[in-house]
Amino acid sequence: MQNKKIILASQSPRRKQLLEWAEISFEIKVLHTKEDYPKDICIEEVPVHIAYEKAKIVWSSFDTTEQKNIIVIAADTVVVLENEIIGKPENRKDAINILSKLSGKKHRVITGVYIISKTNIISFYDITFVRFNTLTIEQIEYYIDQYKPYDKAGAYAIQEWIGVTGINSIEGDFYNVMGLPISRVVKALEVIAI
After folding, report:
1. Which residues contact 129 (CB under 8 A, 6 or more apart)?
2. DSSP-based three-state secondary structure for 128
3. In tens digits, what is the pLDDT along the chain, a chain of 194 residues?
4. Percent helix, strand and coil across the chain, each to the nearest 5
5. Angle made by CA atoms 118, 13, 113, in degrees to the nearest 5
6. β strands within the chain, DSSP E
7. Contact predicate 18/180, CB 8 Å
8. Alpha-carbon distance 160 to 157, whole Å?
9. How many separate domains does the chain show?
10. Cα dihedral sign for 10, 16, 20, 21?
11. The dihedral of CA 179, 17, 150, 157: what is its sign?
12. Contacting residues for 73 by C-beta, under 8 A, at least 6 apart
């Protein structure tokens, strides 16, 4: 990977932090894309499709000479409760409704990853199951007012107070819930950089 420039096509502070923790040298470049998807694709492929759109637009912003030495990584995370995709909350009321729905239940967090180089493309998704304790309305309102989780799918971040106090169990990759299954990304980068 030494001779490749890695570009993270995401403005998520969590994804940036995870790549930094993995001691990967990278730059950030984000171009606006719509986060919509075809209605006929399976739920697991939704975040992969959105990650593909993010990666494709950033990849195509480089000319063919630059592309020889560039790897673009994009990711998207969705929260799924009983086959319903729960996005980012629109406002405080919506955040309260979302966390009330998740309270006491098990849901899936699916992160789709799309990585492009000149010679290869790797895409995959990772699923983590998360179960919340039964949350009181006071806990939900406290979390929303203190942490303002309006930029987070499912209206929460597992590494914040709500995760520490409100999550009963997780099955799968903790970092996937943060927004990037980082160990799988590192392995993919080792393959794609050859």
Report:
1. 106, 107, 108, 109, 170, 171, 172
2. strand
3. 567 899 999 999 999 999 999 999 999 999 988 878 888 999 999 999 999 999 999 999 999 999 999 999 999 999 999 999 998 999 999 999 999 999 999 999 999 999 999 999 999 999 999 999 999 999 999 999 999 999 999 999 999 999 999 999 999 999 999 999 999 999 999 999 76
4. 40, 25, 35
5. 35
6. 5-8, 27-28, 70-81, 84-86, 106-116, 121-132, 167-171
7. yes
8. 6
9. 1
10. negative
11. positive
12. 6, 7, 8, 9, 10, 19, 26, 55, 113, 114, 115, 185, 189
The residue segments making up the domain with residue 89 are 5-192
Mention every residue, 6+ apart, whose C-beta is less than 8 A from residue 51.
74, 75, 76, 112, 113, 114, 123
The rounded distance, in Å, linking the Cα atoms of 65 and 6 is 15
Task: Identify the H or E element spanning 46.
Answer: helix 46-59
The residue annotated as part of the active site, out of 36, 40, 76, 145, is: 76
CATH number, domain containing residue 145: 3.90.950.10
Please give the C-alpha separations between residue 65 and each of 69, 171, 173, 193, in angstroms, as whole numbers: 8, 43, 37, 16
Place of tokens 């986060």: 35
Spell 162-175 as b/e; 16+ CB within 10 A means b. Answer: bbeebbeebeebeb
Examine the residue annotation and report whether 63 is marked as an active-site residue of this protein.
no
